[in-house]
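INFO  loader      accepted 1 record
INFO  loader      residues=325
INFO  predictor   begin
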Amino acid sequence: MAALVLGAVVAGAGPMARVAAAARAECNGHVELCSRRYNKIAFAATHNSMNTVADHFAAPEQQRSIADQLDGGIRAFLIDVYTGTPTTDHVCTDPTPLKVAQIRREEGQAKLDQLLAVRNAQCPPAGGPTASLYLCHAYCELGATKFSDALATYRRFLRTHPNDVVTLILEDYSPAADIARAFRKAGLESSMIHHEPGAPWPTLSQMKRQGTRLVVFSQNQGGAAPGLLSAFKEMGETPYTFQSAAEFSCRPNRGVAKSPPLFLLNHWLDDPNRRAAAAMANHYDVLSARANRCERERGHIPNFVAVDFAEEGDLLRVVDDLNGF
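INFO  predictor   done
INFO  writer      dumping tokens
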């Protein structure tokens, strides 16, 4: 009876009341998504979301700031968390154990020794009283924004958009305890979902009711702190290094290889002219064809469709297609 009365009230209300009621029923812009489980939905994502023209990074892969990306419909963010020490004109990369291991693995001990020598000669001691967490790409010397500022942006968005779910996929080089502390200080701890690998994912409406609309994955330290989910125990992905669109594949890379609970589609090109490459890669015919092919081959909807320069091409249209709109 209560539902009938409410329906009658809404039906008899004015246009603005009907719009407000519809908005309350939406999840990430669509009523139909509310009843779907999180892992059955495609989300528009940006690769190296912090590496932007707007924030003056040296080799940007996005045009817009994170705030503008949110306003433009992006709901999943691939971001890199570093520890850095600021100077008067830039931020120095601090050699955390995870960052040291990455450089040694990818560039060798000789290169690591050289970089450490330069850093120690030109920068304050690592881990000092001014050290903080930053969003950087490769090295903070090439561009850095405060992690706390980004978290404040996400908190404002979640507060002003109570029907939306946001996902962060962290490439994390800072200690997990420091990252968890940053979420806590930002007032986001209670918004982070806690999920055990293998357990069913909730629906978006359940996430709204429980107030856990922030999903945070950690590539390196998943499970090391509450709310930092293990990225590659929860998802599979495609490769992420392609020189041309003809090389785009759907083969497994890191994480769960077969029927993954979640699926990350890495869709960008290693090209010096990243904006032009993104315009071509994000074109509807290219992106849609690959997304649909990967859904068939991997047996799962691409949950995170991650691109460079997301305003180029047709990312949002492809994501709507994947969701059946």
